[in-house]
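Readers outside the structure-tokenisation community will struggle with the description of the input data as it stands. What matters is that the chain and its backbone geometry are given together, residue for residue. For illustration, here is how one protein appears when written out as sequence plus structure tokens:

…
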Amino acid sequence: MPSSTTACVARNCPLPEDNAMLEHLLPVFAGTLAAATPLIFAGLGELVSERSGVINLGVEGMMLIGAIAGFAVAAETGYGAVTGLPAGALAGAAAAMIFAFFALSLAANQAACGLALTIFGIGLSAFIGQHYVSYSLPGLQPIAIPLLSEIPLLGPVFFKQDWVVYLSFIAFAGVAWTLAKTRLGLLLKAVGESPEAAHAIGYPVLGIRYGAVAFGGAMAGIAGAYLSTVYTPLWVQNMSAGRGWIAVALVVFATWKPSRLMLGAYLFGAVTILQFHAQGLGISVPVQFLAALPYLATIVVLVVISRDRRLLQLNLPASLGKPFLP
């Protein structure tokens, strides 16, 4: 009589060792989607802003402002992310308008204004968040999509997530479709490439840029609110932990294309989540190195991308970072 293992091999069924490895890998893949969600929201918002010719380095600050606004509203109302995410979006958009006033209306240096917004967001969120240090929220339960969640391997990863992860899929599809297929997308590209020409034929350049910056702020606010109300449903000072800077780097990594940004967000999400599952996967690497890995990966990606100047010049909006006064 053949052994059970031999019979299993003959039938091409997974061995117990394979099942054990799969059990460790599935939570990593599922966690990658959740870890990448704030990067997707913040990155898509920054991509739209930069496509209009405005570089906003205040993503980290807007995320923190959105995080504390979302957490405060969620804690006070008791409705969690249902009220927290809209509050975070409004707070992020309001912070972006402060940046837009100085960078667009007053034509101040965009990089300096963005850095100032980040510093402001760190300080404001720390000040408001003192009252909520001991609070915690219930978070969100995964929603299994009928039939799709039962697909082997892919189902539990992609179709058994919380509703904000599904919202990130919709946001990606909406931004990609708008930029590629709509008149608004063409206007954004025109303003980002040549604001003088767009103004000459009657388009409100500053109005379009204000809208793009507001959208970027709202998306960053949603990203921050997701961190504080869903991903880690409690308030921790500086809880964005550099994700805003990673989102800015992702836009460059993606060469201003939504599909590449989505892929990059999942790659960075996988690197982020790996530190929590390293021991289960048998990876004997110091925890400190794994914690620093997302930031090391950001540096490496920026260095590699910056070496290909032709790729950057082909996709870089021509007026990015340049002030325009009609």
